[in-house]
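Reminder to self: tokens first, then the designed residues, so the page reads top to bottom the way the pipeline ran.
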């Protein structure tokens, strides 16, 4: 029997383990379950190496309330900080293990994974708000599997003509990375609206500056009808006559992703519209089950400081109402 099982080994899940240890829970009573092969997988896979991991992402003031805290840091510094947190607190992380069911029985939880069944007094769900990346409605020819991408780490993109599709923070960050001088790419950004209203101000200013300096070509008010292949290279067929058909070496989609809403609903968590109903310390309607990190912030998620602080708030409530730590 564990005192607390944490689902997800990103910044929120790791900080939840650190907070629990700091509040007096023995490390052998804490378990973190992560479906990926390593912790902080989203940062490692989708974040450009040279791009700062910003503490104040999406407008949250970077004031830390718990044990863990970071200022704006490089990707390497952020991952190293998480490595040290796991090591220093002797946290037990099970990688490559997926949770498919949670049920409450006689005052404790049973957590069913693809490898085992665990019991715990408390469950903290710290998975990211995005699951599978969103894909366009039109078909992507199978011949383009190596040139139509949903992140910028799958293939090294250099000396190429690249189209990024999307209008959010990821789209801007992809353009910033791809347009660096050493990459020697010719970068275009396709967005269906005439202005950017989904980006934080840093990314909006960055993409506009890149456009002004002719490092990125903005294709605003552009809609893609279909993709076709020419010798494995994508031909983008735009609905607008002014853009016509354009050939690229790579197309990178940054369209966001699906939330884990269905999973949360199947385990009994109540929602009010698109958002889970949360009480003090981000506790759900199920006593002893908490949502932290992006899940507690909704569409405003993405801040590492929010992830850290939500873990501290949850742990205060857990200690007060359940573990008496």
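Designed residues (325 positions):
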């Amino acid at each position: 029997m564990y005192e607390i099982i944490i689902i997800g080994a990103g910044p929120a899940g790791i900080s939840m383990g650190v907070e629990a240890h700091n509040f007096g829970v023995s490390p052998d009573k804490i378990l973190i379950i992560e479906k990926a092969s390593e912790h902080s997988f989203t940062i490692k896979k989708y974040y450009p190496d040279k791009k700062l991991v910003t503490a104040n992402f999406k407008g949250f003031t970077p004031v830390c309330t718990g044990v863990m805290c970071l200022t704006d840091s490089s990707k390497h510094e952020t991952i190293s900080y998480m490595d040290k947190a796991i090591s220093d607190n002797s946290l037990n992380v099970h990688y490559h293990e997926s949770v498919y069911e949670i049920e409450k029985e006689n005052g404790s939880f049973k957590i069913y994974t693809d490898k085992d069944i665990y019991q715990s007094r408390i469950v903290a769900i710290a998975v990211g708000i995005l699951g599978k990346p969103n894909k366009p409605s039109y078909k992507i020819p199978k011949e383009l599997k190596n040139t139509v991408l949903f992140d910028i780490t799958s293939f090294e993109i250099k000396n190429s003509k690249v189209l990024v599709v999307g209008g959010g923070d990821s789209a801007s960050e992809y353009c910033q990375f791809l347009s660096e001088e050493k990459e020697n790419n010719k970068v275009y950004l396709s967005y269906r609206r005439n202005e950017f209203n989904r980006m934080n101000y840093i990314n909006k200013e960055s993409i506009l500056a890149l456009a002004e300096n002719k490092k990125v070509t903005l294709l605003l008010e552009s809609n893609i009808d279909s993709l076709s292949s020419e010798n494995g290279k994508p031909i983008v067929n735009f609905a607008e006559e002014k853009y016509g058909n354009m050939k690229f070496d790579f197309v990178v989609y940054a369209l966001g992703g699906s939330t884990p809403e269905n999973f949360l609903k199947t385990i009994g968590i109540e929602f009010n519209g698109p958002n889970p109903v949360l009480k003090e310390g981000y506790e759900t309607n199920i006593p002893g089950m908490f949502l932290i990190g992006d899940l507690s912030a909704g569409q405003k998620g993405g801040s590492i400081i929010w992830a850290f602080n939500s873990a501290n708030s949850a742990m205060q409530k857990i200690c007060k109402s359940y573990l008496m730590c």
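The chain has a mean pLDDT of 91.
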